[in-house]
Design goal:
The protein is mainly alpha-helical. It has seven helices and no strands.
Length: 133
């Protein structure tokens, strides 16, 4: 069981696999790569043990998350849920300041265009980097 735990945790499993492959029989010393069939055992165990159970664990977490989300929404009407969705949308929405706050004055508009241009941003970033250096 300890060997299977080490292999399923994917920590130090190559050492365990090499020791198993060098195994000959009881009361006999190891021979290099004597039982090469164990390669397949470890490969199959890692695929099934690690990846299958990892996906199973993620599936259980997803199921519990969905259940918790349903419990959070319990007791609310469709109107209440719609209102909550609109509030979330309002909180996450950001206005486009470059097009909504365009000044009417000609000189201020030119300055606004200069400050919001990508070239000005690169210039400022260069100044910051030079200041750091």
């Amino acid at each position: 069981m300890e060997t299977l735990y080490v292999v399923s945790s994917l920590e130090g499993w190559p050492d365990v696999m090499i020791q198993t492959i060098d195994m000959v029989d009881f009361d006999k010393g190891p021979l290099k790569e004597y039982s090469t069939g164990f390669y397949w055992y470890y490969i199959i165990f890692i695929f099934i043990g690690s990846f299958f159970f990892l996906n199973f664990f993620i599936g259980v977490l997803f199921l519990k998350f969905n259940q918790a989300q349903k419990e959070d929404r319990k007791g609310f009407t469709d109107k209440d849920l719609g209102w909550m969705d609109i509030q979330k949308l309002i909180l996450t929405t950001e206005p486009d300041y470059e097009t909504t706050n365009v000044p009417q004055n000609k000189y201020i508009k030119e300055f606004h265009d200069l400050v919001t241009s990508p070239q000005f941003e690169k210039f400022i970033m260069t100044c910051i980097v030079l200041n750091i250096v």
